[in-house]
Amino acid sequence: MQSKLSDIELIEQTLGGNQAAYADLVKRHQRFVFTLAMRFAKSREDAEEIAQDCFIKAYRSLSSFQQQSKFSTWLYSIVYTTAMTFLRKKRLDTSSIDDENVYLQIENQHGSFENNLAEKQSQSFYVNQAISQLLPDDATIITLFYSGEQSLEEIAAALGMEANTVKVKLFRARQRLKEKLEKLLKHEAKELI
Amino acid sequence: MNSIEENLWNYIDGTCTPDEQQAISMLIETDEVYRRQYEELLALNLEFSNIELEEPPMAFTYRVMEAIRAEEAMVPLKAAINKNLIRGLFGVFAFIIVAITAYALFTINWNAGSTATANFSLPQVKLPVNLPPAKNLLSSAPVLKAFIFFDVVFGLFFLDAYLRKQRTAKQF
User: Fold this and answer.
1) Which residue of A has its CA nearest to B49?
2) Which residues, including other chains, have CB under 8 Å from residue A180's CB and lie 6 or more apart?
3) Domain segments of chain B: what residues?
4) Which parts pass through the membrane (chain B) (predicted)?
């Protein structure tokens, strides 16, 4: 069962030496942090590594959290920088083995695509599929705005951008998501016919 | 100038000014194109709001907490040693060295060297084999080259280790 204490109260308890309080904070935010990590990593193993790294980094620098923003906003900024570093590293390590992995991932996705017929019917499945086809930046902004309950200003703080830039990026990300969604649905309709 | 779609998204998000909001609201009521696009975007907005969050593995929290515990247990030796203890030991040894040196200086008979005649000679040591003179050994080309080669390899090895450390430190 998750704690009913606020994030700030849990942080204070953690700083006082209560590690169980930090475990509660992790439980509270892990789904969202993991989802954000998935927007960058695409594989569950890598996303888990990123998410775990984020929570460890957050624990290390918890005393430097000034409480000028929501804890979630601060945490998401850590997720963003950690994920970007991960992507940079990944790009450096690119090799033919990676290409093979991508092929296997696509094959696996195709397999699960056919197996999950019930899930296929739900609208949110297509939205998630379309989001996974977006660029990491677009997918992150969409996820933060719709699932993270973050305002444009909070997203800007988390990503280290101007609020106006985020507004423009959100608009473009929505347009791209709409296009991807339309393509996906058209493809599905063709398959059914 | 903003497109219809951009205006409508601003209207849906509530990020436009009250005047703009009123104007767009009027357009939705009167303009068929506006109304259709507004309904379409509203439906999309609802769909986007239903994004499902990914579920991390069951043991995720446990793994994070274990990693934190392991990290805390591995406090570097540098941080674990009490600095006052080091300072205390340094003080004790410095005091002993200074005290011995001072005692030695005070107890030396500075006139002994000028009055007494030295009656001391180095013992004769005979080596069992005839070794080549050290000068010749060092000046021989293969030995010198091997020595320089070894030094260069050793130097490059340490330079590589130093640069790797610098790069790792920059990454974190």
Assistant:
1) A146
2) A130, A133, A134
3) 4-49
4) 85-106, 143-163
Rg, C-alpha atoms of chain A: 18
Q: How much is the ipTM here?
A: 0.74
Stretch among A6-10, B88-92, B163-167, B168-172 having the lowest mean pLDDT: B168-172
- Contact of B55 with chain A, judged by CB distance below 8 Å, is answered with yes
Residue A175, CB-side half-sphere exposure with 13 Å CA sphere: 11
pLDDT digits (tens, 9 = 90+) for A159-187: 888 988 999 999 999 999 999 988 888 87
SS3 content of chain A, % helix, strand, coil (to 5): 80, 0, 20
* Amino acid letter for position B171: Q
Burial of A76 (0-12, 13-18, 19+ CB in 10 A): buried
Q: How far is B61 from chain A (nearest CA, A)?
A: 6
pLDDT at B133: 60
Q: What is the pLDDT of chain A when averaged over all its residues?
A: 82
List, in order of start, the domains of chain A with CATH numbers: 1-94 (1.10.1740.10), 95-193 (1.10.10.10)
> How buried is A82 (Cβ within 10 angstroms: 0-12 exposed, 13-18 middle, 19+ buried)?
buried
